[in-house]
Structure formats: structure tokens, C-alpha cells
Amino acid sequence: MIIDFIGAIATGFCLFGVLLLVNRLIGGRFGRWVYPAAVALGMIGYTVWAEYSWPVRTVEGSPQMQLASANEQSVVYRPWTYIWPQVTRLVLVDRSHTLVHPQAEDLVLTQLVFIGRWEPIHVAGVVFDCAAAARVDLGDGVTLQEDGTVAGADWRALAADDPVLRAACEVAEEVRDGRGERA
């Protein structure tokens, strides 16, 4: 948050400096009101850019993550979000923590990473069943067996087109291809 504040201040004063230089080069034709307006526009512009680009910057900055879902939100105190909704939360599949057992290839053990704007990051271990379109969260009473199956699981059915399920199964396919078991 402090980095965004510093970025907004720096952008405002950079725009101030550019206008000051341009005004000097053209012989002082700008009115004095231009400078505070430039600072304000620079700060507002940076803030809007930062709020709308953080999901892209977050995903591009984490190549081991695959975007599964983005939660868009519109709020009353930001009326423009009804036209251009703002992403407030991401769900990512961690490629580096995704495993597929050779004896149970339809089951995918992975970590989901939940990132919210101005919120702490949460990580959850999950097993997806790509064939049955279901998931189970790893927790108390859930154990992984040596044959790749899950014991003590309370499976939750998912829609076949669930974006998080699809992303996890795509990453699992990459994992299988990476170890040469499927061509």
C-alpha cells in the first residue's frame, strides 16, 4: 500500500515537472492553475492504473501460478465500477505444488492461492477429481493413501465448467506431460 502511495506522489510530481519544463520552453503561457491540476491528474491516473492493473501484474510476476478465477466487483462509492468492474480477488493454481499420482491420474493434488487486493494471501491444499468434477479440501481427517486415493474425504461436486477445476486439471495435464507419461 505504501508503494502505491509513493508511486502516486511521484507520478504527480513528475507530471508537474514535465509541465514546468514545457511551460518554460513555450514562454510561460500556462496559467498557475495548471500545476496543481497536473499533480492531481497524475496522482488519480496512477491510482486508477494501479487498481485496475494489479491482477495482471500479480499473475505475470508469478510464472509458477496459473490464473483460475478472478472475482470482479462493483461498488456504490466507485460508480465507474458498474461500467468497468474491478477485480478484487484472484484464485491461482500453484504449478510448483501440483502432483498427480501415476496410479490415480484423475486426481490432482494442488495448492490454491487466494490473493485479494489489500488482503493477506491464503493458501489451501485441495484434491480435484477431474473425471468426476469434484473437490475435497485437505484438512483434519483427510489422508492421502499410497495408491493416490484420498481417505476420509467429503467430496463436493462441481460444475464441469468450473474455472478452478478446469485450471487445476490443465496444470495436471502439464505435470503428466512433463514426466513423459502421456504423449
Structural commentary:
With about 180 residues, the chain is an alpha+beta fold. Helix content is about 35%, strand content about 30%. The chain contains three helices and nine strands; from the N terminus they run ααβββββββββα. It has helices spanning about 1-25, 35-60, 165-180, and strands at about 65-75, 85-95, 100, 105-115, 120-130, 135, 145, 150, 155. Strands 1, 2, 3, 4, 5, 6 and 9 form a seven-stranded antiparallel sheet that branches. Strand 3 (about 100) and strand 4 form a beta hairpin. Helix 1 (about 1-25) crosses helix 2. The longest helix has 27 residues, at about 35-60. The mean pLDDT is about 90.
Helix content: 25-40%
What's the end-to-end separation, in Å?
46 Å
- What gross morphology would you assign? elongated
Strand segment tally: 9
